[in-house]
């Protein structure tokens, strides 16, 4: 009688099936995690500080604008004809980033032609409404956003 090899605790085919299923599950989880984070968005406490000191006020001349990130969202800070203005830099049409046009003296969306005045009010284009205002002021020679 010849000795036979002991049978493995987990047959090779079962091991490979489990390895394949685990790698598929890990790939799906890695691909779906960013989608889920985008859909649910940040928690209210994760939005960042409620006060942002941007720059010395003299560094933003009248008629010029500057982009910043406030509480996790892009904003546009403008030294307009009536003083400092800050608005959301997210277009109300499809969420593109708007830009200040020095030449035209208005805020424009490069994606679909949305146009806003210096205060964020709609001038034209397929936009759903005005840009959301953000509190801004000059304090101690600095431009301060928020509280």
Helices and strands in order:
Blueprint: H1 12-40, E1 51-56, E2 65-70, E3 73-80, E4 83-88, E5 99-101, E6 106-108, E7 115-116, E8 122-124, E9 133-134, E10 136-139, E11 142-146
Written overview of the protein:
The chain has one helix and eleven strands; from the N terminus they run H-E-E-E-E-E-E-E-E-E-E-E. It is of the alpha+beta class and 147 residues long. The chain has two domains: 10-41; 48-146, 3-layer Sandwich (Rieske Iron-sulfur Protein). The strands form three sheets. The protein has a four-stranded antiparallel sheet, with no helix packed on it. The chain has a four-stranded antiparallel sheet with strand order 5-6-7-8, with no helix packed on it. A hairpin with a 2-residue loop joins strand 10 and strand 11 (142-146). It is elongated and about 100 Å long. The relative contact order is 0.15.
N→C terminal distance: 88 Å
Structural class of the secondary elements?
A: alpha+beta
Total E-strand runs: 11
Query: Fraction of residues in helices?
Result: 10-25%
Whole-number count of domains: 2
Query: Sheet bearing the most strands, described?
Result: 4 strands, antiparallel
Please state the CA-atom Rg, rounded to the nearest Å.
27 Å
Q: What percentage of the residues does DSSP assign to strands (E)?
A: 25-35%
